[in-house]
Amino acid sequence: MMSPARLRLIALLAALAAALQSGCGGKSSAPGAVAPRAFSYAASPATYTKGVAISPSLPHSSGGAAASYTISPQLPAGLTFDATSGVIAGTPTVLSPLTAYTVTAINAGGTASCSLLIAVNDVAPAALSYSHNAVTYTRGVAIPPEVPAVSGGAVTRFTSSPALPAGLGLDATSGVISGTPTAVVSSGPYLITAINSGGNASFMLTLTVNDQAPSGLTYSSNPAVYVSGAGILPNLPASSGGAVVSFQVAPALPAGLFFDTNTGVISGAPGAPVPSRTYTVTATNSGGSTTCTLTITVNARPPTNLVYSDTAPAYSRGIAIAPNIPSNAGGAAVAYGVSPALPAGLGLDPVTGIISGTPSAVSPVAAYTVTATNSGGNTTGVVTITVREPAPTALAYATNPTEYTVDTAIQPNLPTNAGGIISAYSVTPALPTGLSLDPQSGVISGTPTVVTRQATYVITGANATGSTICDFVTAVGASSIAPPATPSVTAAAFVTTGQTALQASTEDQGTANGTTYLWTLTNGTITSGQGTPAIAYTAGAVGSLALDVKVSNLGGSASGTRSITVVAVPLAQLFAQEKVLAGTRARASVAAQSNMSCSWTLSAGTIISGTGNVLDYTAGLTPGAYQLSVTVQSPVGSSATASRTLQVVAGAFLPDVRTSRQRYGHTVTLLLDGRVLVAGGDNGRAVSDPGADLYDPWSNTWTPTAPMTAMRSFHAAALLADGRVLVSGGSDPSGAMLDSAEIYDPATNTWADAGRMNATRQNQTATLLADGTVLV
């Protein structure tokens, strides 16, 4: 069904169309009179405002003048129609929609009509406003009604562009904004318009809908206790109020934990242990924020399965123990304790848990519980410890061997030992009659009553841990028997190492009164004759040999000794240059051991000095071959001989060849055999070279030899008395000066370390002194 307003608009448009088709034409009535025609109004259609005086609207027509006018229907209240002039004037007092009015002009000649469109609108709204230009609401909280203020004509409807946030409504009739916002909306402008038939007025209102501030923030685990290195269950936040948009935490969480700023979830695996600490978490949305205090502790991974390197040690009183070290399968312990207290003298390190010390008292087997602790917890382990008396060792007597006199009380002979306390002593065989061994103290005392020959008695000292023995030698003689005379030992003063069937003897004092002979030998072996005045023996290593004999009878004993020197088997290794210039002075040497004498022979030339292992000589004047020999003889008469054929040559320049490499900053040393050693130096590429070459002047050849142990250049070299070469100092490839030294042995073609100088140096001198030492 159509609304009344729509029906009126359709009728108005139909009337207007009819008027346009017919025009405001005239209609003749009386013959001879001219009727009005082309009748119209200038203001048509005309829109007037209620309460506002209109400008008079005058009719216009051609043809005859109108004598009167009519209008239908009646004009809106407040407007007047002059029936004589046809003028419309006044002030409209009511609203009127656009309406078609038929005006007829009349005279004697006839009539003319026209259609006039008139509407009366209200005064347009003006100065629309609300109490706030910008308002902020909270989601879910009813707002106080926002009432508009407006002047001008009565508003017929209110509109908003865009539509207000969900939950808020604009009353189209009153313009009141009310409701409860249901969604969060960021700040934005809303154009509110008041409308009537006369026009509209607008107001820009800025609206923001914030969420409800979060509240009651909590975490699923608080306080939270974590373990270093172990992944945690996510720690989840919960809150009431509005949904949280972002989270923050202060200070930063322990290393390894992750804080999600979007969800507030804490996850990860904490790193190093951290003591208990408080963290403030802030949850925020557009409506505000709330906080909670979160306590987090990161404990160390607890220790587990504590064990010791020795779980059941047996220690000896007075002997420092090897540190007993703990270990566990969990986290590192920071503190240790033990119960009950360890045996006296032993201690537990409270930080490392190591058991160490020197037990000072015997302790029976017992179990000790050690507790290892860290911030994550603790674990225990059991160590079973026994402290025993150490086994006795090196049992000895104050006087041993001894010679006692029958029927004369002896001075108590007291034992000593280097180990633990001896709890029991025993002897086998039984001591001479009248003497006794105290089984607790080991003291030998008493008065011998029977004469006995010298004999050995094995005394054993024992405790629960072990035992030790002592060979106790004693004899009991009669007071009327004279002791033997002090013996002298006859033997060669020098022997050769390893030499066998050597003879030694002392005076034969017979066998009366139980006379015995006891020989002892250091650095050798007695091969036969023990117990007799003469023995045979084998010499040991080079050095000193001591040969002792003790002669005993019932009246006492006497000892004699002989010191013998053991010398090496003589060797002769001759060093001499193979070719010498006629008439020049030369030197040769032989490697000989100490206590050896050297004898030189020369078939041509003159021996200048040749009493030791070095020979200085002058070569013969005639070129040719001659023989050089040396004989090395030991004090025992054994000898070794070495010979060399030498060539005497006339002086001349000889062609030479290049060395095996380029070098400078090297050393050049003339060896005893006439060859030349060239060692080290820079190889022309600014890199030190450890290489060495030997030049043989007679074969005119260079031969690479063993390299030095270090790269060096600008060093020093000195020929030692035994033919070896000392090389010292110099600089390495980086230019750093060296303090090292090494020795070249031409006999073995090897280099050996010679220790370090007291300072680094290069370009130094090295001089062989008369005593064989070298001055640098």
Strand content: over 45%
Euclidean distance between termini CA atoms: 133 Å
Low-confidence sequence ranges: 1-29
Largest sheet entry? 5 strands, mixed
Give Rg in angstroms: 67 Å
Give me the secondary-structure category. mainly beta
Shape: elongated
Give the rounded overall mean pLDDT.
88
The helix tally amounts to 1
Helix content: under 10%
Task: List how many beta strands DSSP finds.
Answer: 66
Descriptive report:
By secondary structure, the chain is mainly beta. Helices cover 2% and strands 49% of the residues. The strands form 22 sheets. Strands 1, 3, 5, 8 and 9 form a five-stranded mixed beta sheet that branches. The chain has a four-stranded mixed beta sheet with strand order 11-17-16-13, with no helix packed on it. It starts with a helix and ends with a strand.
Helices and strands in order, then pairings?
Blueprint: H1 4-22, E1 26-28, E2 36-41, E3 46-49, E4 59-63, E5 68-72, E6 79-81, E7 88-90, E8 96-107, E9 110-121, E10 125-129, E11 134-138, E12 149-152, E13 157-161, E14 168-170, E15 177-179, E16 185-196, E17 199-210, E18 215-219, E19 224-227, E20 237-240, E21 246-250, E22 257-259, E23 266-268, E24 274-285, E25 288-299, E26 307-308, E27 314-316, E28 326-327, E29 335-339, E30 346-348, E31 355-357, E32 363-374, E33 377-388, E34 396-397, E35 402-405, E36 415-416, E37 424-428, E38 435-437, E39 444-446, E40 452-462, E41 467-477, E42 494-496, E43 502-505, E44 516-522, E45 524-528, E46 534-539, E47 543-553, E48 556-567, E49 573-576, E50 579-581, E51 585-591, E52 597-602, E53 606-609, E54 614-618, E55 624-633, E56 639-649, E57 667-670, E58 676-679, E59 692-696, E60 701-705, E61 716-719, E62 725-728, E63 738-745, E64 750-761, E65 767-768, E66 774-775
Parallel strand pairs: 3-9, 11-17, 19-25, 27-33, 35-41, 42-48, 50-56
Antiparallel strand pairs: 1-9, 2-4, 5-8, 6-7, 8-9, 10-12, 13-16, 14-15, 16-17, 18-20, 21-24, 22-23, 24-25, 26-28, 29-32, 30-31, 32-33, 34-36, 37-40, 38-39, 40-41, 43-46, 44-47, 45-46, 47-48, 49-51, 51-54, 52-55, 53-54, 55-56, 57-58, 58-59, 59-60, 61-62, 62-63, 63-64, 65-66
